[in-house]
Write a structure and sequence with these properties.
- The chain has two domains: 3-255, TIM Barrel (Alpha-Beta Barrel); 309-379, Orthogonal Bundle (Arc Repressor Mutant, subunit A), CATH 1.10.10.920.
- The chain is built from 16 helices and 17 strands.
- The protein has helices spanning 28-48, 71-84, 104-113, 127-133, 139-151, 170-182, 200-206, 215-231, 250-256, 283-291, 305-316, 325-332, 336-339, 341-349, 364-368, 370-379; strands spanning 3-9, 11-12, 24-25, 55-63, 86-97, 117-123, 157-163, 187-192, 235-238, 241-243, 261-264, 269-272, 275-279, 297-302, 323-324, 353-356, 359-362.
- The strands form four sheets. A nine-stranded mixed sheet has the order 9-10-8-7-6-5-4-1-11, with helices on both faces. A three-stranded antiparallel sheet has the order 12-13-14, with no helix packed on it. Strands 15-17-16 form a three-stranded antiparallel sheet.
- The protein is globular.
C-alpha cells in the first residue's frame, strides 16, 4: 500500500489567536537548521524503508505556515522527497499557504517544483473577523492569492473557512461562503472554531471581551454551509469537506481510511508498520538527534488489531459514504455489527447511524453529533 508523507513546517509569522498547534516564530537561521535536519531525516528513512515502503502516493506540506519559508526552500523540500522516495505517477502534492505570504512569483515557483494542489488558509472574507482570529492577512490579500494561484497554473485549489467566530452572524457566514464559491475552488474545508484552553482567543472569551456564538448558531452555520456548497455543485464527502468530482483531498482520505503515513519534521505524527509514533516538537532537540544520526522519535505505541479496528470504524465514519461492511469484515475477520453490537444498536436506535446498501454511515443528525457517536463507539463497546 503506497505511503502518504506529511511534512510539518513549524514556523509562523505570528501565532493566530485560536491556534494551539506547535509552531515557532519564523527566523532565517531557524529555518536553515530545520531544512538541513529535515533532509537528514529523509535520508535516514530512505535507508530504513524497503523499496515498497518508499512508494509515495501523496505528499502534504502543512504547518505552521509552510509559506513562511522562501519559495526556493519549500521547492527544495519537494525535490528532496522526490529524490529520497519513489513518487507514484499522478501523486498528489499539497502545500498549505497563507494569503499574505505568497505572490505570483512564489506560487509559480511552487508549481514548477511539482506542487499540484494548493490549500489556502482564507478562513474568512470579513476583515473584522480576520482580526478577531489574529490572522495576518486581509480579505483583499486572500482574493489576490486566489487570483495568483490560477495565474501560476494551479488547477486544484482548496479554501479553508472557519465558522463560529465571535461576532459572526449567519448572514456574514453566507456572504463568505458565496464569495468563496464565486472564486471557483475545487475543494473547500469548513471548520467550526475550536477554542483550546490557553489560546489568546479563549482567554478573551473567558474575560468577556468577545462572545462566541452559541450551539444553535453553530448548527445553523454548519447547515448553511452544507446547503450553499451542495447547491453550488460540491459533493459533501466528509464531515467538514466539500469537493468537485474527483477532487477529494486524497492525502486526508488515506488518513481517514487508516492507511499508512509517514510524518517528517518537529511534532509530526506517523502511522507505519503497525505503530503510531511522533517526533520531538522542540526544533533544537529534533535537529540535534538527527545530527547524531538518530531518528527524532519521542513517543510510540503498537497499534493492536483491536485498536486498529476501532480507529478504522470512527475515522471511516467521518466520510459521508461511510464504511463498506464487507471490506471491514475482510480486513478484520469479523463483522462490525458483531464487534460493536451494543454501541451500534444504541446509535441506530437513536437515529445517529444507519446501515443501508452494505454500508454503515452517519445520519444527518449523526453528523451534527459526530463526536458523541465516536465516543460511544470507543467507550461503549460490549
Amino acid at each position: 500500500m503506497p505511503v502518504s508523507v506529511y511534512i510539518h513546517v513549524p514556523f509562523c509569522l505570528k501565532k493566530c489567536a485560536y491556534c494551539s498547534f506547535i509552531s515557532y516564530p519564523y527566523d532565517p537561521a531557524g529555518a536553515g537548521l530545520y531544512i538541513r535536519a529535515l533532509k537528514t531525516e529523509m535520508s535516514l528513512w530512505e535507508e530504513e524503508l524497503s523499496r515498497e515502503e518508499r512508494e509515495v502516493g501523496t505528499l502534504y506540506i502543512g504547518g505552521g505556515t509552510p509559506t513562511c519559508l522562501r519559495a526556493g526552500e519549500l521547492a527544495s523540500i519537494v525535490e528532496e522527497v522526490s529524490r529520497r522516495f519513489l513518487p507514484l505517477p499522478g501523486w498528489e502534492v499539497t502545500a498549505e499557504a497563507n494569503p499574505g505570504t505568497v505572490d505570483a512569483v512564489y506560487l509559480k515557483t511552487l508549481r514548477r517544483a511539482g506542487v499540484n494542489r494548493l490549500s489556502l488558509g482564507v478562513q474568512s472574507f470579513d476583515d473584522r473577523l480576520l482580526e478577531i482570529l489574529g490572522r495576518t492577512h486581509s480579505a483583499r490579500c486572500a482574493r489576490q492569492a486566489l487570483y495568483w494561484a490560477r495565474e501560476a497554473g494551479f488547477d486544484n485549489v482548496s479554501i479553508d473557512l472557519i465558522y463560529g467566530i465571535p461576532g459572526q452572524t449567519n448572514s456574514a457566514w453566507r456572504g463568505t461562503l458565496k464569495e468563496a464559491v464565486g472564486h471557483g475552488p475545487e475543494h473547500l474545508s469548513v471548520y467550526g472554531l475550536e477554542l483550546e484552553e490557553g489560546t489568546e482567543l479563549a482567554g478573551r472569551i473567558k474575560r468577556g471581551e468577545v462572545e462566541a456564538p452559541g450551539e444553535d448558531a453553530w448548527v445553523l452555520m454548519y447547515r448553511t454551509a452544507v446547503f450553499i456548497l451542495k447547491s453550488a455543485g460540491y459533493e459533501h464527502y466528509e464531515i467538514s469537506n466539500f469537493a468537485r468530482p474527483l477532487k477529494y483531498a486524497r492525502h486526508n482520505v488515506n488518513c481517514w481510511r487508516c492507511l499508512p503515513y509517514l510524518g517528517l519534521g518537529p511534532a509530526a505524527h506517523s502511522y507505519l508498520r503497525g505503530r503510531r509514533f511522533s517526533n520531538y516538537p522542540e526544533l533544537g532537540k529534533y535537529a540535534a538527534l538527527l545530527a547524531g544520526g538518530e531518528l527524532p522519535v519521542e513517543h510510540g505505541e503498537e497499534i493492536t488489531p483491536e485498536k486498529e479496528m476501532a480507529e478504522a470504524l470512527f475515522l471511516g465514519l467521518r466520510l459521508l459514504r461511510g464504511i463498506d461492511l464487507a471490506d471491514f469484515e475482510r480486513r478484520f475477520g469479523q463483522k462490525a455489527e458483531e464487534a460493536y453490537g451494543q454501541p451500534l444498536g444504541r446509535l441506530r436506535e437513536a437515529g445517529l447511524v444507519k446501515i443501508e446498501g452494505g454500508r454503515l454511515f452517519l445520519t444527518k443528525r449523526g453528523i451534527l453529533l459526530s463526536n458523541a457517536v465516536f465516543r460511544e463507539l470507543v467507550e461503549g463497546r460490549s
